[in-house]
Amino acid sequence: MEAVLQPTPLAGEHEDWLHRLSANLMETDWSAPLRPIADKLAINAPLNLADGLVLFNHPDLHEVGALANAVREARFGRQAFFNSNVHINQTNICVLACRFCAFRRGPKAGDAYAMSVEEYMEDLSKYAHAIDEVHSVGGLHPEWGVEHYEDLFRRVSNEHPHISIKALTAVEIKHLGQRSSISTYEVLQRLSRSGLTSLPGGGAEILDDDVRAVICNGKESSQEYIQIHREAHKAGLPSNCTMLFGTIETLEQRLQHMISLRSLNNETRGFQCFVPYPFLPDDTRLPQAQLATGTEVLRTIAVSRLMLNNIPHIKAYRMNIGDHLAELGLQYGADDIDGTVQKESIMHLAGSTAPLNHDRAKLARLINDAGCTPVQRNTTYTAFEPYTPPPVQERRSLPMATL
Fold it and tell me: Which of 32, 38, 76, 177 has the fewest beta carbons closer than 10 A?
């Protein structure tokens, strides 16, 4: 019998969040353009394209942020979530050459690499004691089929059963199906049986094929991205979903992207978190990109929270936007900042300067500084534990110097 995903119990939400939201929204004197939107939100009615354009064009960013924060606080109170994870990008060799990507290498490039299963396991073993998730995405290796990842995921599951495997984007799933001459649904079923826990959701970029033809020609189409995630949810694999903004897309295309994801989640309830992140321009090949400002990043996070009423979590992805904007994002509708990460290549080659040496205590401090309560979660948002800092060891008194 095929697995059918059900919404996770509360997914960290307060049980009466909609009642709390309605009360909070009615108590606030919203401006005339935002009042009809607040009325919709109070009954959890989905916002439409016109509503989204009002939010993107509203001159008072702080009011849009306050509206998003009201939704966020009704759902989660002051909780903000993180996890203990490591990113291992298994190969940078890719048969595609997306214009925005600074990570991809051809197989003959001097810095091209492809980790064997043994090399991957050796790398993972350095972090395994301190994490409960490994996040792996990479290039479309011309020689790897589904068997390679079956072997890899079995090894991870057998040797580190406490670690969940969040891996492979939709285009990687498509590529494995083509390499192995099987359907994408069979790829997902086989990988799930081998230990895959969830999909990270990367590669959505903008779900508009005219935009994709310019920035990522050759990748999966918009409908293929949606269909592969539909199949993942059908196979019992929850997933995140993403949006890369600040390339060549219009505001309308950003909003249609969100509406497409929301429509799929009405059907499957398999999306657990939405991750909007801006295009990073360094060392990439997209000179016509429109490059999002810091305020645009915060506004997009806020609009995401308001548009995506059926996706529980919104992530301020610090690996992309940095600690400072991620902290502010927790006041503009986001409730998650990702995890400890430890190592990461794709965002940093594109220009990210986010630190990679954060432990749980540093993430907790970032969350506390945003006025929130740090809560450690698992990969699939089904287990939550308030973060308790380790006890501070008393300093030993140093002996007085002998005169």
Answer: 32
DSSP annotation of 182 reads S
Q: Which domain holds residue 71?
A: 11-75
Model confidence pLDDT, tens digit, residues 73-89: 999 999 999 999 999 99
Number of domains in the chain: 2
Residues 6+ apart with CB under 8 A from 16: none
Q: Are 202 and 241 in contact (CB under 8 A)?
A: no
For the stretch 90-120, pLDDT in tens is 999 998 887 777 777 888 888 899 999 999 9
Q: How many Cβ atoms from other residues are within 10 Å of residue 379's Cβ?
A: 23
- Percent of the chain as helix, strand, coil, to the nearest 5: 45, 15, 45
Residues 106, 204: one domain?
yes
187 and 177 Cβ atoms separated by less than 8 Å: yes
Distance CA 237, CA 230 (A): 10
Q: Are strands 271-278 and 133-136 parallel, antiparallel or unpaired?
A: unpaired
